Each structure stands twice: as C-alpha cells, then as structure tokens.
C-alpha cells in the first residue's frame, strides 16, 4: 500500500487532473440518471474553515476532504451517503484535548469515515449510531445505557470506518451501536478505557471487522448483543488487558449475543499492565465469551495469556453455549480453553476440535460431539489485575498506512456486506500486522 504525504494543494491538483475539477465541483461519478447534481468534493480549508462547517455544506453523494492540520472540534455528520476523508491519515488529526465528548459522530445512513486520526476525547473517537437525538447521541449515557426503543430509534443503515487511527479515548476508539450493514477495516485503536473497537446492540447486524489492530486498550474488541451475521477476521488484538469479548447482557437490547464468526485472527499477549483498567477487572484473557451463544472461533492464533486463551462464563443469567473452537493454535496460555460459569447458568454445547495438545479446564470441553457436550466449570484462577493508567497518558501510535485513491469519490455503500467464508481462513503468523504496532 503506498503512503501519501501530500498537502491539500497537491491533492487539489490531483483532483483537477483526475476529475476535471475539485473544490465544490463534480467528483468522479456522473450526475444521477434523474438529472440530479453530480457529487462534489468540499475541501477544508478552502470551502470552509472547520470540519463541521464543511460537513454542513455536504449533499448526499458528496465528499468532505480534510487537509492536514489539527481539528480541535467535534464533528457531527447528519447528511446521508457522504464520505468524510482525510488527505493524510497521520496528519489530519481530531484532538479532543481531554475535554470534548465525541470526535466524529455519525447519525446518518450510508456514511464513510476514512483516513484520519482521532484522539483524546472523553467518550468516543468515532461513533456510528442510530440512537440519538440530533447531535446528542445516547448510545452511552453518563449513568448507564439507555434501553433501545426500536420505534423511536431505528438502526442506522450502511456505514464504513476505514483507515482510521483512534487512540487515548475515554470509552471507545471506534464504536458502532444500533447500526446495521457496516464495515470496520484497516484501522487502529489504542488507549481506550473500555474497548478499542466495539460493535453492539443489533440483530441481523451484517458487520465485517477486518484487518484492524487493537493494542493497549482495556479490551481490544468488544461485542455486546450484536448477532449474526458478524464476521471478525484477519485482525490483530495484542497487548491489551483482554483481547476480545463476546457478551450478552440486559443493559443493551437484543440479548443474547449469538452467531459471530471469529476466524484467522491473532490474539496475543493480552496481559499488558500499561493500559487503562478494565471495568470488570479482567486481565490476561485472549477471548472472553460471557453468555454468548453459537459462536464459531476458527483458525485463530491465541497465545501468551496468564488467565486463559479462551474463557467461557455466564453473562448475568445467559449461559455461554454452543461455542465451537476449531483448528486454532494455542501456546503460552495458563489454560487454553476454560469454563468458569456459575452453576445457575452453566455452559453447554461448547467444544474444542482438535483437542489433542490443548490445555482444557475442564477436560470435557474436548468432547467429540459438540451437540451433547457438557462440562462442570472450574474455579477461576484469574491473576491479580495491576492498576490501570489514565487513557490520556499513553503513548501515541506509530504512523499508519494511507488509504489509496484519496481524490476519488467512492460509490454509495452497498446494502449488504460481503463476508469472508470462515472455512477458508488459515491460522495467521505471529507477525500479522506487526509493522503497525508500537515498538
């Protein structure tokens, strides 16, 4: 992937050469068949002085192209079918300065957020949600979660977060909530006090999470009550307190969580004390499944966890059930796959294949027949979690790869995502996406 470090003036020249015009002029796509206006590129600076002023000029189909600089503001995107893109991922920087709430808040269908950096916001770096009242998002309230009213808050449709760097944000780096038909890809998240990447509260989610790096967070990736189809593939979740979680709870709608495909990921060394504290105190876990159901974990490399590589437990009174762990590589874990569920919500139907050489607690997790597998949970042996660090006090990430085709206005987002087939996944090397992590 080529790296672009062009000033906006150079990109404007590229626009002119490629498109015939750039600033507030038609982009690479023609006017629609009904004779509507052709998509435009709106530039900041040039057409507007701030990101929000530029976004307010957008019409459906347009692209906001942000020039290099520091944007000390919150950006609300309320126009459907637009693209928000930085001219340089590492030099277009939204800075919350430890005092602003949201970096980029998307409340319209069909929005892409691409090729920029967002850091030091009290809540979220990028939030995509159908649960809002105008510019006031209610995905996460001060005193807890607001319960979803499907009549009042229909799920947002079609979104993409691509080539975005989010670090040192108070809750989530990249956050999709009450939203369907989305993609979070080729992005980076660190220093989040909750999770680096979060997908929550959706049925028939149709979400693909692919090619991302999450390190130095309380949790690398978290899913709460987000159900099939959801595919998490080809990611690196390393150096967090917990690598990833699939959970069911009553705080959000659509419980229980079910039917995710987790394939071809590197989940490694998630016992990093130099991270924000995890709210439930967990530490040293690769993949935690708390009340999640019918999830497939296939061809993952899960290594270096002093608690467990995969840990099954109940989520409130939801049982962790029908988990299939297939064709994965384990090494350096105190337990490779363990069950610590409470008796009142005992885990059932969970099994590991092949089980030879895999450290199981209890051994019944190696049953040949998943459908009838049952086990008696073992006592948890969690290592003591070290004190956490402030999310504002963690090192910045290294420069990250750029998006190609900066000047080109993309086609509208698809109605349905293309999901990779987990059967084709292969166990990744331990060096997966290593060039993108902190030294």
TrEMBL record:
Keyword check for Signal: yes
Region called Disordered, residue ranges: 380-439
Keywords: Signal
PROSITE patterns xrefs: PROKAR_LIPOPROTEIN (PS51257)
InterPro entries from the UniProt entry: Beta_helix, PbH1, Pectin_lyas_fold, Pectin_lyase_fold/virulence
Gene3D superfamilies: Single-stranded right-handed beta-helix, Pectin lyase-like (2.160.20.10)
Signal sequence interval, chain numbering: 1-21
Pfam families: Beta_helix
Domain Right handed beta helix: 103-249
Protein name, UniProt field: Right-handed parallel beta-helix repeat-containing protein
């Amino acid at each position: 992937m080529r790296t672009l470090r062009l000033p906006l003036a150079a990109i404007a020249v590229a626009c002119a050469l490629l498109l015939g015009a750039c600033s507030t002029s038609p982009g690479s796509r023609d006017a629609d068949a009904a004779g509507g206006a052709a998509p435009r590129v709106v530039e900041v600076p040039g057409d507007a002085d701030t990101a929000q002023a530029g976004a307010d000029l957008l019409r459906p189909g347009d692209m906001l192209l942000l020039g290099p600089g520091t944007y000390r503001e919150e950006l609300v995107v309320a126009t459907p079918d637009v693209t928000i893109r930085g001219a340089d991922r590492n030099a277009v920087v939204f800075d919350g300065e430890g005092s602003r709430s949201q970096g980029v808040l998307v409340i319209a269908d069909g929005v892409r957020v691409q090729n920029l950096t967002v850091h030091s916001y009290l809540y979220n770096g990028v939030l995509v949600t159908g649960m809002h009242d105008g510019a006031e998002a209610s995905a996460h309230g001060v005193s807890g979660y607001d319960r979803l009213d499907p009549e009042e808050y229909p799920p947002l449709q079609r979104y993409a977060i691509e080539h975005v760097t989010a670090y040192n944000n108070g809750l989530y780096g990249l956050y999709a909530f009450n939203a369907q038909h989305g993609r979070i890809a080729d992005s980076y998240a660190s220093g989040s006090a909750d999770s680096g990447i979060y997908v929550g509260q959706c049925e028939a989610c149709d979400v693909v999470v692919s090619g991302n790096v999450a390190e130095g967070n309380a949790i690398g990736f978290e899913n709460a009550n987000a159900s099939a189809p959801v595919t998490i593939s080809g990611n690196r979740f390393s150096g967090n307190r917990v690598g990833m979680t699939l959970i069911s709870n009553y705080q959000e709608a659509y419980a229980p969580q079910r039917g995710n495909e987790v394939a071809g990921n590197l989940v490694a060394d998630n016992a990093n004390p130099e991270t924000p504290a995890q709210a439930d105190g967990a530490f040293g876990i690769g993949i935690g499944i708390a009340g999640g159901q019918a999830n497939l974990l296939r061809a993952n490399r899960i290594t270096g966890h002093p608690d467990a590589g995969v840990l099954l437990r109940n989520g409130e009174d939801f049982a962790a059930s029908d988990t299939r762990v297939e064709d994965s590589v384990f090494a350096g874990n105190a337990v490779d796959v363990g069950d610590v569920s409470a008796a009142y919500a005992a885990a059932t139907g969970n099994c590991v294949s092949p089980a030879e050489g895999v450290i199981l607690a209890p051994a019944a997790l190696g049953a040949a027949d998943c459908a009838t597998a049952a086990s008696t949970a073992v006592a948890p042996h969690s290592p003591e979690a070290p004190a956490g660090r402030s999310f504002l006090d963690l090192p910045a990430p290294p420069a990250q790869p750029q998006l190609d085709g900066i000047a080109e206005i993309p086609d509208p987002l698809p109605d349905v995502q293309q999901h990779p087939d987990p059967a084709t996944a292969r166990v990744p090397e331990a060096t997966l996406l290593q060039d993108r992590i902190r030294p």
